[in-house]
Amino acid sequence: MSKLSHIDDTGAAHMVDVGKKAATERFALAQAVVRAKPSTIAAILDGNLPKGDVLAAARLAGIMAAKKTSDLIPLCHPLPLTSVTVDIAQMGEDAFSIRTSARTTAPTGVEMEALTAASIAALTLYDMAKAVDKGIRIQDVRLLEKTGGKSGDYKSGDYKAGDEG
User: Which of 86, 112, 116, 133 has the fewest CB atoms in 10 Å of its CB?
Assistant: First the structure.
């Protein structure tokens, strides 16, 4: 088994030193799927929920979360993000697909920022709509694509650009 990068010689967790790595353009795309009753999806789209504009709140929460990833995930480096996007699209009558992206020019990747944005956007959607549907499910939080860095590019085998879920 190869040595784990976040474990030192004594077995303790530590932050990896990325100081000698080249700062390169890096991009990550992540997804979360939120499933709810069709009536809940319709109420969100119509703006008929007591807490207000659910989709706007979820988008803003996702962007804010990406910027705070290193405060939430113990061994993540703080990164100068150059872009964060949060796109929420209806997926059939009972779901939303949340797609998030993050970009930076830094010595380490932005996968965790994109995943954090997707997760928090989904949790915000739940929080905003739970009064009408406690059975909302957050599913399939995953990395779809990444570019840049020493480990090279990655694309999920079942992901095609333009897919909704």
Answer: 133
